[in-house]
């Protein structure tokens, strides 16, 4: 589907391609999902198709179909690589992988979501084209204070080194070589991570503009894009034939 969409994007306007992609997704859900007509709450996809809609959500937001902020050469390069690579690498391009590093638990994959950003966590993002290490606010402050070089903070030093080692493994096995980025929460380079995350927490999530997020709620992303949750709600309504407001 991604390759067909990219091919159509070479001929048609981006909004037309997105509408075509939406129609194909709705038709698939109507054919393969279990539901009662006009009852979105009854909508269920089988295990084989359960994560397909979220891949389409990320494909719609990807650099393959959204050309804003990319030069024509960059867009052509991204689309060419998608057409050339195998399925595993293509899936990473569409929905990047996100690993979390913290003191409490071993490194583990986490949701590609704004709620995964926490002050005491380091994140490793692999978009195939970028390898990014993101330090949460607290971790960044400790690093700048030099705690990793002080006696008694060996565990913090190991925490900083773990994602770097994993990133080097990815860089060594990847061609073309990805861009390597190390950034902190609130820094300018953090935009590479924020642009890929599902914006489940935005500046509209709080009752007052600029008010602080609840503990553990993740970072607010300033965007007008709909979240995956809203996307799925509308998909369910359209698939079962319910009225949409």
From TrEMBL:
Record flagged with keyword Transport: yes
Keyword Endoplasmic reticulum part of the UniProt annotation: yes
Membrane topology: Peripheral membrane protein
Keyword terms: Cytoplasm, Cytoplasmic vesicle, Endoplasmic reticulum, ER-Golgi transport, Golgi apparatus, Membrane, Metal-binding, Protein transport, Transport, Zinc
Any one annotated GO CC term: endoplasmic reticulum exit site
SUPFAM superfamilies, alphabetized: C-terminal, gelsolin-like domain of Sec23/24, Helical domain of Sec23/24
Record-annotated Sec23/Sec24 helical domain positions: 1-91
One annotated GO molecular function: metal ion binding
Gene3D superfamilies: Sec23/Sec24 helical domain, Severin
Domain Gelsolin-like: 105-193
GO biological process: COPII-coated vesicle cargo loading; intracellular protein transport
Subcellular location: Cytoplasm; Cytoplasmic vesicle, COPII-coated vesicle membrane; Endoplasmic reticulum membrane; Golgi apparatus membrane
Protein role: Component of the coat protein complex II (COPII) which promotes the formation of transport vesicles from the endoplasmic reticulum (ER). The coat has two main functions, the physical deformation of the endoplasmic reticulum membrane into vesicles and the selection of cargo molecules.
Assigned protein family: Belongs to the SEC23/SEC24 family. SEC23 subfamily.
Assembly with partners or alone: The COPII coat is composed of at least 5 proteins: the SEC23/24 complex, the SEC13/31 complex, and the protein SAR1.
Protein name (record): Protein transport protein SEC23
Source species of the chain: Paxillus involutus ATCC 200175
